[in-house]
Design brief:
It is a single chain. By secondary structure, this protein is an alpha+beta fold. Helix content is 38%, strand content 26%. The chain is built from five helices and eight strands. Strands 1-8-3-6 form a four-stranded antiparallel β-sheet. Strands 2-7-4-5 form a four-stranded antiparallel β-sheet, with no helix packed on it. A hairpin with a 2-residue loop joins strand 4 and strand 5. The longest helix has 23 residues. The protein is globular.
């Protein structure tokens, strides 16, 4: 049986985390299976969890328009969790297009992961910056 830490290390987000950081991270995550067609997050909803795609594919839509397809290792729902007091709203809808497996966690678990691993925190902030740039480009188009 594979250890969760080994699974995590294979994901880009956690590839630079130390063994002790991975142990803390693993305690914050719950692995779930979801069926194709399940909405993981809905645009405009309050951000109350984050997810990491482990297996499968999901479509990201904004205003009903498809803007991306995501897969293994992609982070979902993190932008809303970084708003003050967890008050952030979802800026897109993410729907599983295949049966999928995800890791999920609460806002407090997300904060513990960022606090436990500087390398993960840096990657999350880089990801958010790139997504904001893409969003600005889409709005301008």
């Amino acid at each position: 049986m594979r250890l969760l830490n080994d699974d995590l290390r294979e994901l880009d987000l956690f590839s630079e985390a130390s063994r002790s950081e991975l142990a803390v991270i693993a305690k914050q995550l719950t692995r779930l299976k979801v069926k194709a067609g399940r909405v993981l997050v809905r645009e405009g909803g309050i951000g109350n969890e984050f997810m990491i795609m482990v297996d499968g594919m999901a479509e990201v839509t904004q205003g009903g328009r498809s803007i991306a397809t995501i897969g293994r290792g992609e982070l979902v729902g993190e932008m809303a969790l970084l708003q003050p007091f967890g008050s952030g709203r979802r800026n897109a809808t993410v729907t599983a297009v295949t049966d999928a497996e995800i890791y999920a966690g609460s806002p407090s678990e997300f904060r513990r992961i960022l606090e436990a691993s500087p390398s993960v925190a840096a990657r999350v902030h880089q990801l958010i910056a790139s997504r904001k740039l893409v969003a600005e480009t889409l709005v301008a188009a």
